[in-house]
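Please review the protein record below. Tell me whether the encoded fold seems credible here:
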Amino acid sequence: MDGLDPTKIQADPRTVLALYLSAERDLEEAKANLNAARHALQKLVFPAYEEGKTLTANIDHFVLKGKAPVYRNIDKAALPAVLRQLPREVGDTCIDYKPQLILKEYKKLSKAHKLLLDEAIRESEGTISIKVTERKRPEEK
C-alpha cells in the first residue's frame, strides 16, 4: 500500500475499510518477520550478552549495535511481606511509588473536588482503537 493520506481520502467507507484491512494484515506480517529476524540476528551476531553492555558488530557496510536490557518489575502481591523484612530505607530508596489516577473513583468525585484535582491532571487525546471483525453471514437456504 502506497502512502495513504487520510486528509485526502475521497473514497467511500468500504474502500477505506479494504485499505485498512490490507494494511493491518501487512503490518502483522511485517512485525512477525521483523521479530524473527531480530531473534536470528541476536543468536548469530550477539549470542552472549551482558546486561546493559552495548555490543557492536560489522556486516559488510552495516554496523549493528545491540543492547540487551533486563526488565525488573515489582510483584505487588509479594511486596508488602518483603518490605516488612527489610529496613525502611531500602524500600524508600529502591522503589518508586508513582501516582496513578483511578478513573472510576475520579468520576465519582463532587464537582468541587474534581475541579481541584483537575489542576494536577494533564489530559491528552489518544488514538482511537479500531477492531474489525467479520459478521457471520446468515446461512443460505
Notes: Strands lie at 54-59, 62-67. The helical segments are 13-45, 79-85, 88-94, 103-106, 111-118.
